[in-house]
Amino acid sequence: MNFRDVRLDEHPEEELLRRFVETGDGKYFAELYRRHSRKVFLSCYGFFRDTAAAEDCVQETFIRVLEQAERFREGEFVNWLMRVARNICIDHWRRKRPNVSLEGEEQEMQIAVWESGTGGGVHLALMQLRTELKALPSNQQRCLEMKIEGYSYEETAAATGLEVDAVRSHLQNARRTLRIKMQGTLSEIA
What we know:
The structure is a single chain. By secondary structure, the chain is mainly alpha-helical. The protein has 2 domains: 3-96, Orthogonal Bundle (Rna Polymerase Sigma Factor, Chain: A); 102-189, Winged helix-like DNA-binding domain superfamily/Winged helix DNA-binding domain (Arc Repressor Mutant, subunit A), CATH 1.10.10. The protein is built from 9 helices and no strands. Helix 2 (26-48) packs across helix 4 (77-96). The N and C termini lie far apart (77 Å). 18% of the residues are buried.
C-alpha cells in the first residue's frame, strides 16, 4: 500500500516526521502539531501555571522541532518532542527569572566577613561550597538550585522532566554530599 493511499492520522509520528524531512510538505508537520500541541501545552502550563507563557513555549517547541527535524533519527517522536518542550520551558524560565548574581552576593559577604574581623574562613567556606555545588551530578545540582530558588518538588519535577520521587532523592543526595564535603570546613569556622 502506498503512503498516499492511507490517511495521515493512521501513520506513526516517526513516519510523518520522516516524510516531512524528505518532502518538505507541511501537511505532515501539521498532522504532528494537530496530534501533540495540546499535550505540549498541558506540559508547559504545568511548568508555568501561566497560559501565555505556555503558549509561547508550545510555539517555540514546534519551531525548534521544525528546525531540527532532520536530526531525529530513532526512538519515539513523542519522547523527543517532550524533551524539546521541557528544554524550551527551562530556557524560557531562565530568561524570565530575576537575574541574581552569586558573585555580587559573594563580594558583599566577603566585605562583611572582613569588616567583622572573622577572617577569611567564611570566604574560603563559601568558595568551597560553590566548588562542591558545581561538582554535583547535573540532576542533583539542577534540583538543588531550583529548591534554593523556592520551587516546590512538583514544579521542579515539571521543569526537569523527573518524577517527584526522583527530585526528592536528588535533593536528599545533594544535601548529604554537601554536608559530608563541607563538614571539616564548617567545623573550622564555627
